């Protein structure tokens, strides 16, 4: 029978019938909660069901069996040695050692995704509250402003915040962008100059093939780059506008810098004059200092990853790759 069902309890071979495995139901709010006994009947006495790899035992509150279970399973409950837990508390400590590697990797990916989602969600809430507080303080500081004007400003802010949240929930795909031309190729994919169909704005679209990243074990590096670009507000870092994926590729929609990169400039001019070299070296130092201020480290500094904007200033790209 299944772990959570069955009409008869299994026999362990020694003549003693084991307790039937049942779903875990926490006893919250005192010793009066229903807990399953060995006979399969509810009881109000504190008890703890522990499932090991060999058997399922119902441990009553006489103390001896419970202490053994806790020592072997890492479980705290009635009669246990952990004084910080109440009588009704049951803690299950699991180890990843017995699970297949694929399961552990999937669990790790799910954990990172949940952590990233809720971190981003909390960050958005904090930023919205901060913007509203700043507007309220600015409105209160204005002399001669009518109450109607203050309310109108707050309503305008709310409308903008709502529009921004709707934009964040919009699902994008590669079909929302029209390719102008391919402007670069790399080990994992290519970079295209694209135009967003609904707005006409120009972006650089980096396309990364998932199978290549998996073969070279580069998922962590790609995630690091995405996190840096998404969290950065630095003038020295290429801005990330959107990111999405499909079954085959990851897509990063970034700021397009028409100046190209320093490697292209070195190939074109061969040798930089001293003043030009001094200028770009100074900007590289400032850019790296700002990245370190954000708490990140660029692990691949080279002319190919130093881009130039339309005004001739540099920006860093390709973090961790």
* Sequence of strands across the biggest β-sheet: 5-6-7-9-8
Order of helices and strands: EEEEHHHEEEHHEEHHEE
The level 1 CATH classification of the largest domain is Mainly Alpha
Integer count of domains = 3
Strand content: 15-25%
Mean pLDDT: 74
Number of contiguous helices: 7
Q: What is the third-level CATH name, the topology of the largest domain?
A: Transferase(Phosphotransferase), domain 1
Alpha-beta classification: alpha+beta
CATH architecture of the largest domain: Orthogonal Bundle
Task: Please give the number of β-strands.
Answer: 11
Tell me the span between the first and last alpha carbons: 50 Å
Query: CATH homologous superfamily of the largest domain, by name?
Result: Transferase(Phosphotransferase) domain 1
Strand count, sense and barrel status of the largest sheet are: 5 strands, antiparallel
| Low-pLDDT residue spans | 1-10, 12-81
CA radius of gyration: 30 Å
Described by the principal axes of the CA atoms, the overall outline is globular
Helix content: 25-40%
Binding site for ATP: 206
Region (Disordered): 1-68
Catalytic activity: L-threonyl-[protein] + ATP = O-phospho-L-threonyl-[protein] + ADP + H(+); L-seryl-[protein] + ATP = O-phospho-L-seryl-[protein] + ADP + H(+)
Family: Belongs to the protein kinase superfamily. STE Ser/Thr protein kinase family. COT1 subfamily.
């Amino acid at each position: 029978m299944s772990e959570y069902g069955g009409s008869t309890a299994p026999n362990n071979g020694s003549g003693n019938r084991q307790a039937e495995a049942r779903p875990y139901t926490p006893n919250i709010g005192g010793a009066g909660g229903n807990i399953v006994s060995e006979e399969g009947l509810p009881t109000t006495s504190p008890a703890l069901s522990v499932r090991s790899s060999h058997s399922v035992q119902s441990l009553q509150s006489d103390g001896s069996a419970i202490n053994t279970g806790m020592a072997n399973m890492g479980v705290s409950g009635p009669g246990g040695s952990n004084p910080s837990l109440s009588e009704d508390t049951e803690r299950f400590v699991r180890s990843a050692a017995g699970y297949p590697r694929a399961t552990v990797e999937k669990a790790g990916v799910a954990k990172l995704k949940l952590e990233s989602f809720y971190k981003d969600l909390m960050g958005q809430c904090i930023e919205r509250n901060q913007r509203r507080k700043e507007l309220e303080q600015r409105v209160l500081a204005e002399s001669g402003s009518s109450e109607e004007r203050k309310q109108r400003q707050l309503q305008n802010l709310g409308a903008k915040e709502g529009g921004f949240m709707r934009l964040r929930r919009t699902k994008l795909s590669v079909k929302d962008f029209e390719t102008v031309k391919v402007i670069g190729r790399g080990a994992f994919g290519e970079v295209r100059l694209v135009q967003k169909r609904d707005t006409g704005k120009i972006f650089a679209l980096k396309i990364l093939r998932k199978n290549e990243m998996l073969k070279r074990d580069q998922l962590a590096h790609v995630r690091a780059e995405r996190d840096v670009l998404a969290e950065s507000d630095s003038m020295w870092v290429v801005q990330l506008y959107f990111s999405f994926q499909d079954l085959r590729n990851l897509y990063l929609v970034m700021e397009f810098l028409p100046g190209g990169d320093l490697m292209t400039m070195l190939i074109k001019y061969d040798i930089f004059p001293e003043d030009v070299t001094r200028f770009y070296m100074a900007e590289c130092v400032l850019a790296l200092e700002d990245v370190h201020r954000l708490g990140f480290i660029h692990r691949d500094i080279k002319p190919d990853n130093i881009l130039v904007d339309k005004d001739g200033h540099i920006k860093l790209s390709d973090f961790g790759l």
